[in-house]
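Problem: given the chain below (211 residues), write out its structure.
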Amino acid sequence: MSKHYGTIAFTEAVRGVQRVQGSNAFYERKRVQGAAVPGSDPLTDVEKAYLAERDSFYLATVSETGWPYVQFRGGLTGFLRVIDDHTIGWADFRGNLQYISTGNATGESRVALIVMDYPHHRRLKIYGHARIITAEQDPTLVASLSDPAYDAVIERAVVIAVEAYDWNCPQHIPARFTVAELEAHLAPLREQLAELQAENAELRSMLHQAE
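Solution.
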C-alpha cells in the first residue's frame, strides 16, 4: 500500500465499517501517516515492471450524475506505459463509439484502475487523475504510446497522474490464462503427441508389412 492510498480510500463511511469489523486501528495508522506526507506516491520499479507485462486492465470513471462506470481496456502486452514515476498512459483505441469513459474523464478527472495478473493471483489498484489528449493537441505523445504492430484506430491518448496505489490481497483471484500464456505449456504436449502419432503410424506400417 502506498503512503496516500488510505487518505483516498478510507473515507469516514469506510472507516465506520472498519471500526465495526475490527480493522480500523491498523488502517487508521496508515491513513494518518499518509496524510502527513505531501504530494502523490511515486511508482517503484516493482509497479513499473508489473505494468509493462500486462495486456489489459479495468478503468473506473464517474459520471456527472454520480454513477460509476467500469470498462475493460485491452491491447498488446505493455500497451499501458509508464511515462515517469508519477504518470502512466495508453493509446485509446476506437471501440463502440459510446465514449462513456472518455466523456466521464473529461468532466471528472478522478479515476481508478484495477490491473490484474490472473495466473499469479496479483492485483494492483491505482488512483489517479486522467487527462484526455488528442493527436491534434500532442501528436508526439500519442505516437509514443502507439504500437504499429497492433491493428487498431487510435483516437486519443489517456494520461493518468498517479496519486496512490495498493497491491490487493491475492485471495479469491481465479487462475485464468491467455492463449499466449498457455502456449509455453501446450507446445511440448503437441510435440509429444506428434511423436506418438508418428510412432503409431510406423508400428501400423510394420504390422501391415508383416501380414
